[in-house]
Specification:
Layout: H1 5-26, H2 33-39, H3 47-50, H4 54-79, H5 84-92, H6 95-99, H7 106-114, H8 119-139, H9 152-173, H10 177-196
Helix pairs in contact: 1-4, 4-5, 4-8, 8-9, 9-10
Keywords: DNA-binding, Transcription, Transcription regulation
Organism: Ancylobacter radicis
Domain HTH tetR-type: 9-69
């Protein structure tokens, strides 16, 4: 029985969604096509009707995971428009988010794996990083600062992002729950201190 184009596209999106979670849980090389497709309720034989290769799926699943993560950042920020960065810090550097594997941050879960992948996969992560940086830059009031294109403002957003990602990575890597919590709290304090100490943006010209 032939599958309609609409159903075929729905199946394809299902595989991408499932893969975005399973890759975060197991790593790109920690799960094979058979188990990926089984997780989506399909057979391995259907894979090559939908994707050119596993790398093709990896790239698309990475983009999907990053889009979902950015959506969660935006939702957290929208819940506290008076201080969106603090809202995102509270969410991202929480013990609950740290415990999330399949649904958590793809940068933490797959960043080291992405470095060993091909250019399409790295491009997916690069695009996601740029969107993260744009959000953080806006929240710390430097999005329109002079020299923000690769300058000091962008460097501060990079430092915030690196601190947050690194803290969750370290917090997940240890058995000691108290040490894990301290990594998250120290990073949260560091981010808020960095941004609170930031000089004000340029004043309007008279």
């Amino acid at each position: 029985m032939r599958v309609s184009r609409v159903q075929a596209e729905e199946n394809r999106q299902t595989v991408i969604n499932v893969a975005s979670r399973l890759f975060r849980e197991h790593g790109f090389d920690g799960i094979g096509l058979k188990d990926l497709m089984a997780g989506a309720g399909m057979t391995q034989g259907a894979f090559y009707k939908q994707f050119d290769s596993k790398e093709d799926l990896v790239a698309q699943a990475s983009r999907r995971a990053l889009q979902e993560a950015l959506g969660r950042w935006s939702a957290a920020a929208a819940s506290r428009p008076d201080d969106p960065l603090a809202a995102v810090v509270d969410f991202y550097l929480s013990e609950a988010h740290c415990a999330e594997r399949a649904e958590g941050c793809p940068v933490v879960a797959l960043g080291s794996d992405a470095a060993r992948q091909g250019p399409d996969v790295r491009a997916s992560f690069e695009g996601g990083f740029k969107e993260y940086l744009a959000l953080v830059g806006g929240w710390i009031g430097e999005a329109d600062a002079e020299g923000s294109e690769g300058g000091q403002a962008n460097s501060k957003a990079m430092a915030v992002l690196a601190t947050m990602v690194g803290a969750v990575l370290l917090a997940r890597a240890v058995n000691d729950k108290e040490m894990s919590r301290q990594f998250l709290e120290a990073a949260a304090d560091s981010v808020m201190n960095q941004t609170a100490a930031a000089p004000p943006g340029p004043q309007p010209r008279q």
